[in-house]
Amino acid sequence: MRAPSGARIVLLDDNPWPGGQIWRDGPQASVPTQAQRLREHVGALNNVQHHPQTRVIAATGPRQLLVEDAERGWVIDYDTLILCTGARELLLPFPGWTLPGVTGAGGLQALIKGGLP
């Protein structure tokens, strides 16, 4: 993560840790070294405010966002907004794809990380 000297960065993430869904921790999952390094790097940056488990609710005005976490809501003013929305799986239909128990790679990953039934 790089920014011009003196820039203030506010990182809003709906996950508890930086790194997105791919590094979401399951019940007994160990954190990959690359993910741990990223988390430590973000935590050590003085010009970055990380707000985990936080969502954008609305644009309240020009260059203003209303955000919330589990405990409060507040307004963030910004000069430049960069949206990093992540990726999503593209599941192309195939014969039998709507049958019970048939899932894509993303669904399988979520099951594994969430603990298989």
From TrEMBL:
It comes from the Eukaryota. Gene3D superfamilies: FAD/NAD(P)-binding domain. The keyword DNA-binding does not apply. GO terms for molecular function: oxidoreductase activity. Keywords: Oxidoreductase. InterPro entries: FAD/NAD-bd_sf, Metab_Enz_Cyan_OpOx_G3PDH. The keyword ATP-binding does not apply. This is Pyr_redox_2 domain-containing protein.
